[in-house]
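User: Can you predict the 3D structure of O-antigen ligase family protein? Sequence below.
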Amino acid sequence: MNIEAFSRLLLLAILMLSIVFPATLQGIKIVLLTLVMGGFLILAVKRPFQMRWSKSVLIISFIFSLIGFIWSLYGEGLGNPGATRVLTVMAIYPMLFTLLGVFWKPGDAAKLQKAFLWFGFILILSQGLYIGSSFGLDGGVFKSLYGDIAVVDQGDDYFLFTLPSVASLIFFLPFFFIGFLFDSKFNVKYILLFLCSVVIVMLTGRRAIYLSFGLSMLSFCGIIAVGKIFFPKQVPKISGPRLMLLCAVMIAFILFLLSMGLQNKDLLLNNFQSIFDFQSNESNLERKFQYEALKEGISQNVIIGAGAGAAASYSRSFEQPWAYELFYVSVIYHYGILCFLVYLSGIIYLVWRQLKFIFLPALDHQTRLFSLCFLAGFFSFLIATATNPYIGKFDYMWIIFIPVMMVNSFNLTNEV
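Assistant: Sure. Here are the predicted C-alpha cells for O-antigen ligase family protein:
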C-alpha cells in the first residue's frame, strides 16, 4: 500500500472514530492525524505538482482561519480565558482539513454512501454494547471506556442513557430516512438502521434530536422545492409508497415499544413537552440565562464582538467559562455580527453547492444519493448546534469538512 492510499485509509479511520467514539480515544485520533499529516508532507515533497486545490476553496478556508487567528489575538489582548484554547478549532482546522482534501478522489462520495451505512451500524452496535455493559453483561468493561462522560439514569419503569456518540444520531437519523426514500432500490438496510436509531433516541431522552429531525425534514423539503425552481429538469425522484410505508412502520414500531413497557410513555411525553418549557425546565432555564448574558455582552460590541474565548456574565462551566450551549449566539458574542455573517455565508455556500450536486444530471446515482442523504443530516446537525456546540468540537467538524472536500474535488475535476 502506497503512502497516499495509507493516508486515505487513516482519514477514514479518523472519521469512523469521530462518529462512533467522539470525546474519547482522543490519543489514538491525534496519532492517526499526525500520521496523515506526515503522509501529506511526504507527498508534497515527492510530488508537489500533483498536489492540487481549488483556488476559491483555499481562499475561503484561509479567510476563516485568518478570522479565527485574528480574533484569538484580539481575545488574548483583552485577557479572555479561552482565547488560545479555541485557536485549534477556529484557526488551524479550517486550513488543515482543506489541505488534506487533496486525498479526496473522484468517486469517493459514492464510496462514502456505503461506508456511512457501516459507520451507522457500528455506531448503533457500540451503543447497544454500552447498554448491555450498563447492566453488567460484560462486567462493565465496555462502559468503563467512556468513564464519567457517559450517564445512565435507571428507574423501576424506565432506562435512559447518554453518550457523546448519541450526537452522531442527529446526523444519521435523517441520513437513513432519506436514503430509504431516494435509493433506486428497496434497500432494507436503511429502514432497519433507522428503526434501531429511533430506539436509541427514545432511550437517550435527548429532546434536541426530535426537534432537529423534524425541522431538518422540513428544511430539506423546502430546499428541494427551491432546487426544482432552478433545476426543473433534474428532479430527484422520491418514492411515495416508501414514504407511507416508513411512516407507518415507524409509528407502529414506537407504539409496540411503548405497549411492551420497554420505556415509560409518560416520561417520553413529558420529555417532549419540556422542549417548549422555559419556566420550570432546568436545562431550558440554563440556556435562557446564557442567552440573557450573551445578549448583554453582544450589545456592548455588536460589530466585532468581545473576542475569541470571552466569558459573559453567566457561564455554565467553571472549567470553560467561554463555552456556551447556544453556539450561534456565542459566535456573535465572541466574533461580532460581521464575522458571524461571514461564517453564515460559508454555510449558505456549502448548502448551495450540495444542492447543485443533487440536481446535476452528470452525477451517478450513488453520488447523488450521498449528496441527498448528507444534506439532510447536514441540516439536522446545524439545527441541533443552535443549542449544543457540536461543530465547535473536533469530533463533529467532519460535518463541515466533507462538503468542503466535495466542492474542492468538483471544482478541479467536475466529479465528486
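The first strand starts at residue 151 and ends at 154. The mean pLDDT is 86.
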